[in-house]
Amino acid sequence: MNTPLNYSHLKLGIIGGGQLGKIMSQKAKKMGFHVTVLDPTPNCPAGQVSDAQIVGGFYDQAKLVELIRTCDVTTFELENVDVEALKPLFDQGHAIYPSPYTIALIQNKYEQKKFLDSKGIPVPTYKDVKTPSCLESLGFPVVQKAKKGGYDGRGVMVLKSKEDLKNAIQGESFLEEMVNIDKELAIIVARNLQGEVACYPVVEMLFDERVNICDSVMAPARIAPALAQEVKDIAIACVESFEGVGIFGVEMFLTKEGKILVNEIAPRPHNSAHYTIESCVTSQFEQIVRAVTGLPLGSTELIIPSVMVNLLGEEGFEGEPLLEGLPEILALDKVSFHFYGKSHTKPFRKMGHITVLDHNLDLALARALKAKDIFKVKGTKPL
Amino acid sequence: MNTPLNYSHLKLGIIGGGQLGKIMSQKAKKMGFHVTVLDPTPNCPAGQVSDAQIVGGFYDQAKLVELIRTCDVTTFELENVDVEALKPLFDQGHAIYPSPYTIALIQNKYEQKKFLDSKGIPVPTYKDVKTPSCLESLGFPVVQKAKKGGYDGRGVMVLKSKEDLKNAIQGESFLEEMVNIDKELAIIVARNLQGEVACYPVVEMLFDERVNICDSVMAPARIAPALAQEVKDIAIACVESFEGVGIFGVEMFLTKEGKILVNEIAPRPHNSAHYTIESCVTSQFEQIVRAVTGLPLGSTELIIPSVMVNLLGEEGFEGEPLLEGLPEILALDKVSFHFYGKSHTKPFRKMGHITVLDHNLDLALARALKAKDIFKVKGTKPL
């Protein structure tokens, strides 16, 4: 604790064993580190490729303590974690990055927004919902967001009119103006223990309208260089405002009026940066390992543009995943296939992704759309 | 057996659990496959990142049978394997690629050379050593090679004069002319189950003269395009001559007279192509998985040049590895660090490697040499 890290036998802990933890673990193992994953699902994706898995939930204090005590450095693939259990361990000197204080700030989307706002970061107009009557205070349409626990489109509700109030989120929530969105942009900022900062290219996220899940990502975003620089400056300002250590996915709106507004920050690897595995010198997954272990950050240079497409579980199926069209998509030029090893599929579950590389981004997009048409993740049980 | 493969739950077996098996396993896991490794060392590098390890040697027939019976497809990270045990399994229809017949041919360097020669592939002048007197039959200097079992410079002896005959290799061997080498070149050829062929760029291998171990690799080789094409044509002819399935590292000599001669073929991932992980669209490690499972081959396009440097155990140390200089080399631009997770180091053992990327190959080489100077793998026991 607080002694210099010994990179010869470094033990890394990862809270969360889904696809983000899996790829992070693979990059840590590439560097020769020992990796233990905490996840409630035995044989989770990350557990399959790591030295050890502790089977336990993210609010299981005993298991969190066990993980942190047996590892030299612990990090996260998700933010829905018992931060109150982690704070005393961090205060005792255990290396937990991002710090539980950072995670706590980010967990609560309302507090996160208020904090960024107080630091002069541009955010959409927002307002706390203290009583049900507050729901009408910004007019309609308006976006209602749960303060905690939402992800992949969950915990977000568009209230178009008074009629929709009956569907309003019941727990703690806040309102956000309905932004007139031109593009949804994202960027990863890495900041290591020493305060060194590195920024990835700005990318463009496209969403599946049915479920509001990020569907595909274009890297780089099709925006002017000056705007890309503005996005980078804002993203770095965000991460420096709370002195984050690790990597941070910053999601932003580009409004039709050309303004950049920060939507939210994820204190971990981000779906929008899967493309970095193939397209950048250093992937986001290696970068987080470098950042939290105090190693110098790697180059974030884009060496070839790409389009990433999430492979979601087909509607109408659950159970063990059954792949359709794998040979066909791998016959397309410059396609990299990732499948996470989840034992069960369900509609819209993130089961894998592909990255299509091309020096010409339009050609990559065309092949990505073709691949998306061909490839299906069905399941053993029709619904 | 001989039924179409089900990519939804494909089980891959890998014979050999060192660094080549480790990275191959990581790429198979990326694609969602289940991986079992056979290796005599518990917790070997590949075992650390795979679903399962069978602890057993490569001549342990029961363990080989166990691996092959529990996997849909089995492949190799090394060629020193009991091929006689594998042949009947292959003949029964088990998917073992490259086939044990291919492995058998390649295992015996003399038979390999004779076979390539018979197919019109250019090879150095060679001669069987039937009796000790044969050792003088090509004059001096001459290269004596063990027919079987050599690797990383072992099983090769340069006989400079009659004086050296007392050091001659004792087992079955053959002689090869002392080629007047300008450069040592290597190339990977992939050929899948369907006979589709793909060729990687030609690279240049530089050797540590002290122990004749490949020390660094420049990708691409600094040779004229017409010569590179000749190398590719010869390499493809080699692999097609024995209808190899998998990936094959073809090592060649470029003589001072400008001739290409095939030195030897490795029926597996090759040290000279580690650079493909970062520099090419599809790494050699994903390519072998695609090839042996009958998937379409991936693009071999070089997207950024690089220099790969092996990180060998320092002279004077053994025991648990101790790293020196990791933060320093990671501070260099565009350096990717691989450490294999071997529990013991010894002088000249391959412990890891780095790949230095740069659009300008000379700049990559300069940084690679600097990194090699800075980084050391020492050990807990001084010798």
TrEMBL record, chains A, B:
Residues of the ATP-grasp domain = 113-293
This protein's pathway reads:
Purine metabolism; IMP biosynthesis via de novo pathway; 5-amino-1-(5-phospho-D-ribosyl)imidazole-4-carboxylate from 5-amino-1-(5-phospho-D-ribosyl)imidazole (N5-CAIR route): step 1/2
Q: Which UniProt keywords apply?
A: ATP-binding, Ligase, Nucleotide-binding, Purine biosynthesis
- Catalysed conversion reaction: 5-amino-1-(5-phospho-beta-D-ribosyl)imidazole + hydrogencarbonate + ATP = 5-carboxyamino-1-(5-phospho-D-ribosyl)imidazole + ADP + phosphate + 2 H(+)
Instruction: Check the record and name the SUPFAM superfamilies matching this protein.
Output: Glutathione synthetase ATP-binding domain-like (SSF56059), PreATP-grasp domain (SSF52440), Rudiment single hybrid motif (SSF51246)
EC class name: ligase
Enumerate the residues binding ATP.
Answer: 109, 145, 176-179, 184, 263-264
Q: Supply one GO molecular-function term.
A: 5-(carboxyamino)imidazole ribonucleotide synthase activity
The protein's matches in InterPro entries, at most eight in alphabetical order, are given as: ATP-grasp, ATP-grasp_carboxylate-amine, ATP_grasp_subdomain_1, PreATP-grasp_dom_sf, PurK, PurK_C, PurT/PurK_preATP-grasp, Rudment_hybrid_motif
The UniProt record lists the EC number as 6.3.4.18
Which NCBIfam families would you find in this protein's record?
PRK06019.1-5, purK
Q: How does it assemble?
A: Homodimer.
PANTHER family documented for this protein = PHOSPHORIBOSYLAMINOIMIDAZOLE CARBOXYLASE, PURINE BIOSYNTHESIS PROTEIN 6/7, PUR6/7
> Would you identify the family this protein belongs to, as annotated?
Belongs to the PurK/PurT family.
- Function as written in the Swiss-Prot or TrEMBL entry: Catalyzes the ATP-dependent conversion of 5-aminoimidazole ribonucleotide (AIR) and HCO(3)- to N5-carboxyaminoimidazole ribonucleotide (N5-CAIR). Catalyzes the ATP-dependent conversion of 5-aminoimidazole ribonucleotide (AIR) and HCO(3)(-) to N5-carboxyaminoimidazole ribonucleotide (N5-CAIR).
What is the protein's given name?
A: N5-carboxyaminoimidazole ribonucleotide synthase
